[in-house]
Design goal:
homodimer; about 325 residues; alpha/beta; 7-stranded parallel β-sheet; 4-stranded mixed β-sheet; globular; diaminopimelate biosynthesis (chains A, B); NADP (chains A, B); Meso-diaminopimelate D-dehydrogenase (chains A, B); EC 1.4.1.16 (chains A, B); NAD(P)-bd_dom_sf (chains A, B)
Amino acid sequence: MSKTIQIGIVGYGNLGRGVELAIKQNPDMELVAIFTRRQPDQLTSANGSAKFEHISTVEQYKGKIDVMILCGGSATDLPEQTPAIASMFNTVDSYDTHAKIPEFFDKVNEAAVKGNNLSVISTGWDPGLFSLNRLLSESILPEGKDFTFWGKGVSQGHSDAIRRVPGVKAGVQYTVPVEEVIESIRSGETPELTTRDKHLRECFIVPEEGADLEAIKEAIVTMPNYFADYNTNVHFITEEELKAEHQGMPHGGFVIRSGVTGNGTKQIMEFSLKLESNPEFTASVLVAYARAAYRLSSEGQNGAKTVLDIPLSYLSPKSGADLRRELL
Amino acid sequence: MSKTIQIGIVGYGNLGRGVELAIKQNPDMELVAIFTRRQPDQLTSANGSAKFEHISTVEQYKGKIDVMILCGGSATDLPEQTPAIASMFNTVDSYDTHAKIPEFFDKVNEAAVKGNNLSVISTGWDPGLFSLNRLLSESILPEGKDFTFWGKGVSQGHSDAIRRVPGVKAGVQYTVPVEEVIESIRSGETPELTTRDKHLRECFIVPEEGADLEAIKEAIVTMPNYFADYNTNVHFITEEELKAEHQGMPHGGFVIRSGVTGNGTKQIMEFSLKLESNPEFTASVLVAYARAAYRLSSEGQNGAKTVLDIPLSYLSPKSGADLRRELL
């Protein structure tokens, strides 16, 4: 490949910054511009050198950008943005509202087919790499049971929820998988697990001055949907402690399948991630799938695809012959 | 799919028996016949019901078998068998001589293209699932280093080697990954490792009566290629102990990539297997890829493919819509 793949980024939060940095690690790619709803001239890029454009100018880049990496949120941004952008460009996104993926797929597929573009939806690690592993392990061990655990890591949704509790000035929530349960599965057990059995929730709270700590604690641990079904620990800390120890965005998790072959022979497959930065890792997955989107589109394919539909060789800049020699 | 996939097995050792059992776990598949170089009427199948045929009759099954699963060895069987069978049938094999895969690929590809068949070569877990994970993690974390560990498990080649030592009546060899090294990698280190640092070799030997135990030990630990580069422990046991404790064929291993994103952020990806039976698990992988071979061939594709070239959705009997809804 002599031509570099021309990339655009739509949305410039933590994920967009991660994509900008990841592109620098891939010499076959080049960042053309970052598109934002904010004032472009008031943004500075992580590398200090990227070009910002207002999102309204995106159409002028048709033919100049090979793949748009969409870095908006799943709640309101992507349901609008992906179909709109997919009608003009190849796209990759990290749409992660699991229950609505089928509907999202159909909508994006329609737009991408119309525009003769290729859209890889719902990449990242879950959905994404974890989905690949659920599929792989279920296909190989049809008699078995799989378990997905998340953490230890920061949950943005739960952190937002605790910050809305009266008396809370700041706070962060960690989802923590229960280590003993994972060990029992690794040793071949296939327990029936409730929500409470699988994960703990650890909250680190900076209270407002004079706040009723017991009331905060009670409001959190009984909060429906977010905490009521879990064992939740609430820790009160100072603003300094929060800044010193809770600024990172670590995450990770496990997909474990415990199955049997033959006459009850136990076989265990496990995939795990331990990430110091969730958005930077997700960004790296998006960038690898941007390469796949470009190559599939170059071969004449169009429409919506998921990670399940794409051969892994499309993620690599190496040739098939090199991959067979070096990695197989 | 109303039609079941018609499968043939070529070769009936541990792997062939594993394939026979795995087919029973996949209701969309049916075993037509097992082909052998031995006297077919002197074999009994693991399920007790399979039909045996002499390998010389294989051509009569053209049009009656969708995929042949080749269960011979990589040293002498598969280099002959895969090209020969690929000229008549779709095939799947577990060719695992890493250094010769490029040459094998070309030879099989030529035969498969000529016969308009599709051949998935070198499946199993290494090459196979471990290759997929090396590719996935290298593509997502281009700045990083990956480590493959095997074990704890029985190595057939090393077990054969110790059984050839004078004075050895019977024996088995386990390859054991060094746990402390794996832990250091999981904690983010990327050490430079020699062969000796990564794996131990544990030998359990039944000596012949009156044999010189020190001489056996010395012959093993100094054996070039097999043991000289490793720390090797030799344990002498009785025939009863060998039968009671060392009849299984467990194996497993780890592919770990430790990489960085952004400004030195550490990210770790790991895939691991813990197998009570190596041949039964490998067989299960072959059967899943037989489904892929059948589907790719039904779509009009031909030639040689590896696991790197095949979307994981092809391994599953479920539809794309079901996979998106249930697994993504």
